[in-house]
Amino acid sequence: MTKPTETAQSIVPDSEIHSGVGVLDKTVKILDALEAGPATLGQLVTMTGLARPTAHRLAIALERHRFVLRDQHGRFVLGSRFAELAAAAGEDRLLGAAGPILQTLLDRTGESAQIYRRQGEQRVCIAAVERASGLRDSIPVGAMLSMEAGSAAQILLAWEDAERIHQGLRHAKFTATKLSAVRKRGWAESINERDEGVCSISAPIRNASGQVIAAISISGPSGRMGTNPGRRYAPLVMAAGKYLTDALVKASAVR
User: Fold this and answer.
1) At residue 210, what are phi and psi to the nearest 5 degrees?
2) What is the DSSP letter of 132?
3) If pLDDT is split at 50, 70 and 90, which confidence band does 62 have?
4) 26-52 average pLDDT score
5) Domain 1-79 belongs to what topology?
6) Residue 127 DSSP label
7) Domain ranges for the chain
8) Does residue 87 surpass a pLDDT of 90?
9) What is the spatial distance between Cα 152 and Cα 148, in angstroms, rounded to a whole number?
């Protein structure tokens, strides 16, 4: 499909799909147009055949729900919400493989293990196993945590686009330099960042496209995990993340 230009021809097909819900059909026209690449409002009008006020209203509504974003030139582009929904759709496959891996991680490290997925401006724990006794960092499944602190938050933000990283760092306890180090080494470390006296180590879980869709973590008291937990535990957490990544890639290939 040709990239849109100011002189682009309408991409409205001769035979359109009519669902019976007019506003939905018009919204899909906007998304179909943006599939070809970034577009100004004028280009959306030309490509969809919609009236300018209608195209503008729908594009702004989609932007508020993050299905559409603006690039550095102010053009409309497809937004991050699609990636989030795709991650959620793959969650069942992830959870199916997660239990044994989290248990193995607990057995090998002696620390509670969790998997987090980003949900809007927070992160949600979608799977967890805990130590049976002793001090532990207890994070129940379904718990919503901040994206502003913690090693899992670092992982879930580190591979985002530049604008979203900029937004995420505004109130974060970690820095852009720290996220750069996370991308280079493939794991993140948090010491007293989310809660005083708590450490965590996290690594990415990726889908078949290489996109980071979740973070796998271990967490526990800093008194037990030590002053440099990353050096001690990162290889195990990264191996667990790679195993789950490989499982998702394999499941995607046989669908």
Assistant:
1) 90, 5
2) S
3) very high
4) 90
5) Arc Repressor Mutant, subunit A (1.10.10)
6) E
7) 1-79, 85-253
8) no
9) 10
